[in-house]
Automatic annotation (TrEMBL):
UniProt keyword terms in alphabetical order: Membrane, Transmembrane, Transmembrane helix
Origin species: Microbulbifer halophilus
Transmembrane region(s): 57-76, 83-101, 113-137, 158-182, 188-205, 212-230
Name of the featured protein: Uncharacterized protein
Length: 236
């Protein structure tokens, strides 16, 4: 992967460094103009990008890719159970889910804490249902059975509801915080890359052509060969 990136950088720096020679032919001029226009379009696009819209687009790409791989999985039916291809549908489904969380963060956080709220209110709802049936079914005490080792059944019914509500709130809060942290990592990573690319694009648009050519010459003839040599030796 690193070698491919270095080769790509070497090619582009070589094109910039040899611009004057390439422009001597009509085909070379046309090619350079096409590359220059494409490069400027990309830099301007990334320099003033809408990160939220980009995250939504990335989420949609992951979703469509997941559907494609699911369809291919059932059409091709890989024979090897440990094949990497088998994990691709699940991988892109997970990526789609975490991006779904990241693109609508407030709604996702509300959903997580609403589950915690349900765990807090649940015991009191059961207490109310038991009261309506004159405690005929003892649903709340049945719900508390996993905690019998702590002699919870010796408590009053409202005390059991209070204990279960506190335990449910603690568990729900931990689950909500854990989900927020875990599901936010991937969107934040992509957001960091987008912001980094945006800053780099803005910087590149401000660089003078002469400065860009000098930097390309420096990379093409000194930095690039050194990095490729280090990569081939396994140093980097």
């Amino acid at each position: 992967m690193l070698f491919s990136i270095l080769v790509t950088l070497q090619i582009f720096s070589g094109l910039v460094a040899g611009e004057s020679s390439i422009r001597q032919t009509q085909e070379g001029r046309k090619s350079l103009e096409t590359l220059s226009n494409a490069g400027l379009f990309f830099l301007r696009w990334r320099a003033y990008a809408d990160y939220k819209e980009d995250l939504k687009a990335l989420r949609n790409i992951f979703g469509v890719t997941a559907l494609i791989f699911i369809a291919l999985f059932y059409v091709i039916s890989p024979a090897e159970s440990d094949s990497f291809f088998n994990s691709l549908p699940g991988l892109f489904i997970v990526l789609w889910l975490v991006m779904q969380f990241g693109t609508d963060f407030r709604k996702s956080v509300k959903e997580q804490f609403s589950i915690a709220g349900l765990l807090i209110l649940g015991p009191w709802l059961l207490l109310g249902m038991d009261a309506l049936t004159n405690f005929q079914f003892q649903q709340l005490r049945h719900m508390a059975m996993p905690f019998n080792a702590f002699d919870i059944q010796k408590l009053e019914t409202y005390q059991i509801a209070l204990v279960l509500s506190l335990v449910g709130g603690l568990i729900g809060g931990i689950m909500a915080v854990f989900s927020i942290v875990v599901f936010s990592m991937v969107p934040l990573f992509f957001l960091f890359l987008m912001a980094l690319l945006s800053v780099a694009s803005r910087f590149a648009l401000k660089v003078q052509p002469k400065t860009a050519r000098n930097l390309a010459l420096l990379y093409c003839f000194i930095i690039g060969p050194v990095l490729m040599a280090l990569e081939s030796k396994g140093v980097i």
